[in-house]
Structure prediction request, 160 residues.
Amino acid sequence: MAHSGPRLRRALWFVAATALAVAFFWSATTYEVYRATSPPHVATMLFGDEAARFGDPLGISLHVVLRKLYSVVAFALVCGAWMCALRPPRARLVWASIALGAVYSAAIEVTQAYEGSTEGLAWNAFDVVCGALGGALAAAILIRFGGRRTSRRAPRIPGG
Prediction:
């Protein structure tokens, strides 16, 4: 039973990753949650009256920028938890996390479109890029702070 600790830890990561993925998917595809977390006055409330007009010629208000930024953080949380659960080799960690973020985001975009979202393809593509960025952020954090993984190869004997 010496290996039960790592197995339990991995099982807990699977549970956490699944719970995060389901919770964020539900919140991203539920209109009521969208309205509650993105009222039109958020940017104005946080940054004053001028914030609502920031970027209007491009159609990008500050509250949209804020939503995209916290979507990247949400994708990083989901991808980070899944990478901890799946434990891909370090050489594949970055690409696996980026791909997972993009695919997860694309699934959200498809579901939102099915439920009547009127975002255009450009915004859908931008949101998928946000998912990939979240995956890259998760990989960067895991590489920097994830500690060393033990190698599956036999250790090299110095002088041998």
Notes: Residues 4-145 form one domain. Residues 150-160 have pLDDT under 50 and may be disordered.
